[in-house]
Fold these 3 entries.
Entry 1:
Amino acid sequence: MVAIADGKRHAAQIVKRLKAAYPDARCALDFQSPLQLLVATILSAQCTDTRVNIVTKDLFGKYPDAKAFAAARPSELERAIQSTGFFRNKAKNIKNCCRELVEHHGGEVPQDLDSLVKLPGVGRKTANVVLGTAFGIPTGVVVDTHIARLSRRLGMTRHSDPVKIERDLMGQLPKREWIDFGHRMIAHGRRICVARKPKCDQCPLDSICPRIGVADRS
DNA sequence: ATCCCGAGGG
DNA sequence: CCCTCTGGAT
C-alpha cells in the first residue's frame, strides 16, 4: 500500500520535472474560440493532433460558427473531416452538437461540465479539455490515451477506467496544476513516453518512474 | 464488450 | 503486417 502523502509527494516530483522539461507546453490543437476547440477535440478521437489541425485549417473557414455547423450538409461535412477517421459519427456528432448549442445555449459553448457532457459526442475528456483550455476553468483532469498510459507507468494509478484514473490524479495534484499537467503529460507521451517503445534513456522522469507495465530492455 | 474508421510508424 | 492516435455511444 502506498500512503496518500507518498502519492502526493510522488506527484509533486513528477510535476516539477515535467515543468522543467516542458516549460511552455500548451494545447497542440489549433483553435481561436471555444467552439473551435470543442470541434477540434471531437475530431481528435483516435486521431493525431497533426491530422486534426490539417483538417480544421479549412474546416473553420467553411463553417464559421455553430449555426453554420448545425446547417451543414452531412455529406459535405463528412468529406471535410474524412481523413480523421470515424468520420460519419464525428460529422453527425458535430452537427447535432452545434444544433444543441444554437437551440439551447444561444449558439455559445456552455461553461459547465453537466451541460457539456449532455452534448452529443462530448464525453468527460472533451468537456475537461474545453473547460480547462478554452475557459481556464479547472473542473477535472483530462484523461486521454496518453495520460492514462503515463499515469499507470508512473504509478499514479493502477486503474484503466478513465473516471477512476481522473479521481486518482485529482487526489494527488493541486487544482492549479490540473490544466498544465495535462498539456505536459500529453507532450511527454508524444515525444518520450510513447506507447510502443518508450525512450526511457531520454526520459527526465526515469529516476522516479517505476515503469509499471513497461517491457524490460534486453 | 463492441463498433466506428482513416492515416502513419515500425 | 500490427499497433497507435488528445473517445464516445450503444
Entry 2:
Amino acid sequence: MRKKESKKEMILNAATSLFAHKEFHLVGMDDVAKKAKVAKGTLYNYFKSKEDLYFSILKTRLNTLVNSLKESYNANENAWNNLKRYIERIHKFMTSNPYFFMILKKEEPILEKKKKIEIKSTIDTLKETIHKVFIKGVKERTFRIETANELVTDLVLSMTDTVIKRDLKYNDKTKAVETFLGFLSTIILVN
Amino acid sequence: MRKKESKKEMILNAATSLFAHKEFHLVGMDDVAKKAKVAKGTLYNYFKSKEDLYFSILKTRLNTLVNSLKESYNANENAWNNLKRYIERIHKFMTSNPYFFMILKKEEPILEKKKKIEIKSTIDTLKETIHKVFIKGVKERTFRIETANELVTDLVLSMTDTVIKRDLKYNDKTKAVETFLGFLSTIILVN
Amino acid sequence: MRKKESKKEMILNAATSLFAHKEFHLVGMDDVAKKAKVAKGTLYNYFKSKEDLYFSILKTRLNTLVNSLKESYNANENAWNNLKRYIERIHKFMTSNPYFFMILKKEEPILEKKKKIEIKSTIDTLKETIHKVFIKGVKERTFRIETANELVTDLVLSMTDTVIKRDLKYNDKTKAVETFLGFLSTIILVN
Amino acid sequence: MRKKESKKEMILNAATSLFAHKEFHLVGMDDVAKKAKVAKGTLYNYFKSKEDLYFSILKTRLNTLVNSLKESYNANENAWNNLKRYIERIHKFMTSNPYFFMILKKEEPILEKKKKIEIKSTIDTLKETIHKVFIKGVKERTFRIETANELVTDLVLSMTDTVIKRDLKYNDKTKAVETFLGFLSTIILVN
DNA sequence: GATGAATGAGCGTTCATTCAT
DNA sequence: GATGAATGAACGCTCATTCAT
C-alpha cells in the first residue's frame, strides 16, 4: 500500500529533503514541484504558501522527533542512559535536518506568529521530555542538582547542535558525539 | 565631531543594524541605501556587491569583538575572572549582533570560499583567545583538565549564544547570563 | 484564425520589429514585453535571456531567408535569372531586417561563441546557395570565371546591403536595386 | 613639444582607441577617463555627453581620412593608381577603426540629427573625392563608363569594408585586399 | 579648470503566486 | 483536483551625468 503515496505526502517528502539541505530562500517552489513530480499549481492546493509548506514540514518533523524520543523512553533504565539515547536521536535528527534548529532561534518574520506558536508548543514538549529525564536523574541522585533547570535543557540542545556542526565541518561523523557525551557526563553526573 | 560620519560608516552602520535583525535574503540593498540616507549607487562605490557588504560587516564586527577580548585580558587576574569578562563581552556582542553567529554555522554558499576563509581565520583567533584562558585555568589548577579542549571552547560559545536567544525571547536581560555563569562555574571549575 | 497567435510568436514578432529598428543595447526587455502585450516574466518562459531571444530571431529569420532562396531556385532557368531572383529576395529581406546583417560583421561578444557558430553555419549555407549559382553561371559560360570565388559572394551580399541602405536613406525603393542589378550584370556577365 | 598634450587631446586619443575596438555601448566613460589619465568629470568639461565625445572622434577621424586621401592624390598619375592608393588608405583606416563605418549605416538615434548632418557632410566629401577619380578614369578612357555613378562609389566603399571584415575574421591581413584589387580592376577597367 | 564621490533611473532577471483550462 | 503558462513586483547591479570642493 506504500505504493500509492498521496500527492500531499509526495510534496512533503520532496520539500523536506530540499529544505533539509538548503536554506528557505534557496529552495524554489519549482524545485519542490519537480522533485515531487507534481505541477507547481498543485502545491497550492495543499499549502497556501511556501511558508505554509515550510511550516508544515517543520511541525511534522519535530513531532516525529518528539515521538521518537518518547518512544525510546524506558522507565526501568537509569536517567543517564535515557538521556544518552535522547541525545543520539536528536543528534541523528539534526544531522539530517541541519537547518531546522536554526529557524527556531530567529526572530524572523518568515513564519507568521500563529504558526510560530504552534511550533513553539512542539518545541516545549520536546524540552519537557528532556527536562523530565533531568528531574529523574536528580531524583536518582545521579545528576547534579543544578541540572534540573530549563536553561540546562536549552544548553544541552544547543551543545548538541554545535557538535553536529563540527561533525559536518570536519566530516568526522562519530568521534565528536562520543567526546561530547563524555564531557556531558562530567558536567551532569555527580562525581 | 561625531556628526560628520563618513559615507562608508553610514552604510556600515545602516547595514549592520539591518543584517542584525533580518536574514541576508530579507535585507535589500534599497533598504540599506534608504537607512543609510545614501543613493543605491553609492553602496557600490564602497562595496562591490551585497555579499561584500555583508562580509565586511562580519569581518569588522568580529575583529572588534576579538580586539575587545584581547584588550580585556589581564595577566594578573585568575583565569575564571578573565573568562567571565570574555563571556560578558561576547554576550554583549551577540545581543547586538544576534545573526552573526548564525551565518557561521551554515554551509550555505552565501559567502565565496575565499571570503569564508578570511572570516574563518578571525573566528579561529577568537577561539584561540578563549582557548588560552582555558589552558591558563588548567595550569592554575582551577579549571578541570578536560576543559582544555577545543570542543569546549565551541560549546561555551554556543551556550553563550543560547543564553542570548533566551534573553531576547523572555526580555530578561540579566538573569540568564548570571545563572549561566553560575552553571558554567560548576562545569569548568574544579570542585 | 490568424487572430490566435501563440505567445511565442507574439514575442518573436514584437522583438523582431524592435531589433530591426534599434541596436541590441537600445532594445529593452520592457519594450519587448510591452509591444508583445505580455508580462516581462513571460519572455523568460520562452527565451532564457535577452541574448537568447535575439539569437532565436536571427536564426529564424535567416533560415526563412535561406529557405526562400532555395525554394526560388529553378534548375531550368539560366544562372543570371536565378541570381537576380536571389538578390531580389535578399534585398526584400534586408529591407525589413536592416540590422540583421550588421551583427554578423561584429566581433563583439553579444552572442556566445556556441550560438555564433550556429548562426555562422546558417550564413554559410546562405553563401553556398549563392555560390552554387555562380558556379552554375561559370559552367554556362555566361558568368566571368573570376566570379566563382567566395569573396565575390561576400561582395555581392555587402553590395546588396549597401543598396538597401541607400534605398532607406533616399526613400527610393525601386530604382537603386535596378541600377544595381544593371551594374552587377556588367560585373558578372561575360561581355 | 609633443610632450605637452592638451587634456582634450589626451581624452580624444584614449576614446578613439577604445571606440575603435568596442561598440559604443560597451565603452564606459570610466574606461575613457582611466585610459586618458583624467578624472571622469573632466570629460564633461570638454564634451557635453558621451555621444558628443563619440561624434567628435568620428568627425576628426573621418577628416583625417579625407585629408589623407586628398594628400595622396597625384594629378600626374593615372586614375587606377590613384584609386588603388585610396583604397589602400581606406582599408588601413577601416582596419584600425572597424566600428566607424558601421555607425554610418544606422538609423540609430545615438547621434543627434544635427551632428549626423555634420558627419554626413564629411562622408559626402569623402565620396566626392573618390567619385572624382572615377570621373578622371572615365575621361582617361581607362574606366568603364558605368562607374561614373555615385552608387558605384558606395559599392566600392562597402566592398572595401567587407574585405576588412574578412581580413579580421581569417587573420589574413594581406591577401584579401590584393585579390580584391584584382577583382576590382576587372570590374572597373575597360577590358 | 580639475576632481571623483554621489546620484538614481534604468537594466536584465527571478520566482512565489494565480487562474483559465 | 490537477495543471503549467502567465504574471509583475522586487531584486542586485550599472553607468552617464552632476556638482560641491
Entry 3:
Amino acid sequence: MCNSHHGEQGESEERCCPGRGRVRGFMQPWLLLLLAQKPAHGYELMERLGQDDETPGADPGLLYRTLRQFEEDGLVRSSWDTKGSGPARRVYEITDEGMEYLHAWVVNIRRTRERLDRFLAEYQAYFQSPEEGR
Amino acid sequence: MCNSHHGEQGESEERCCPGRGRVRGFMQPWLLLLLAQKPAHGYELMERLGQDDETPGADPGLLYRTLRQFEEDGLVRSSWDTKGSGPARRVYEITDEGMEYLHAWVVNIRRTRERLDRFLAEYQAYFQSPEEGR
DNA sequence: ATCTGTTATATGACTAACACATATATTATA
DNA sequence: TATAATATATGTGTTAGTCATATAACAGAT
C-alpha cells in the first residue's frame, strides 16, 4: 500500500492516503474568511482558494454547494451581478452570523492544531528519542 | 447558528460546528502509533486514545471497523488472547507495511498543520492587524 | 441463583464531506 | 464557426464519522 518511504525528509509523498489527513470542511472557513475580506462570486473564490492553499483544484461542485448551504443557513447573502462581460455572477457577501461562524471555526481550528501537535510530539518521542529506539 | 461568541478567548465553544474542523481519518495514525509502541487489543486502544486526546469518546464502532480494515490491508495482524479474565481479546500488532503507512501519515499530518497555520496567519493578518481594521 | 456492571467485540443505519463526472449558458478569440 | 474561458450547477458514489444496538464472558452483590 502506498509508495515506500522511510526518508523522513518530506519529499514527494503525493497521492498517499488520498483524502485522509485533511481537515473536514476546511473549505468552509476559507470561504468565510475570503468573503470577510471582500464580497466575491464563486468562480473568483475558487481561484483565490487555489492560490494560497495548494488544495488540489478546489472542487467547484463542493464550492457552489457550500455557498448555497451557507446562504440557506444565513451565513452569507447573494445577489446577481450582470455588469461586466461573461455570464452573470452570483456575488456573495458575508453576514454578521457568518462572521460569528468564522470566529467559531477559528477556535476549532486552533484546537485541531493542538491535536496534531500532540500526535506529532508522541510520534517523535517514540521514533526520534535516544531510547525506545528502533 | 451556533452559540454566540466574540470573546476570542477560547472558552467553551463546545458542540459548535459538530464534526467539522477535525482531521479526516485521524484515528488511523493514532491506532498505528499506539500499536507501534506495543501490541494491544481494541478496548485497550480505545482507552489509550481517550486519555491523550480528548476526542469525544473514541467511538467503538469506528475503532473496531478501522482495525478490521487495517488487517485486510495488511497494516496489522491479529490473534486471540484467551488468557486473563473477561471475554477473549483480539490482540493486534503492527506490520512493516503498517509502519510505512504510519510514516506516510506523519508526512500528511505535517502538511495539514502547515495548511492550518496558513489559514490562521491569514485570519490574524486580517482581524488582528492594526490596519484592515473592522 | 439472578441481577447488574464491566470488559470486549461487533453490526446496522444514517449523515456529511468529498471526489469525479457532466450539463448549461455566456462571451471572447482564433 | 469552432474553441476556449468564464460561470454556475447537478448527479452519483465513496468514506469517515455518529449513534444506536446486539452479543457474550465474567465478576461481584443481593
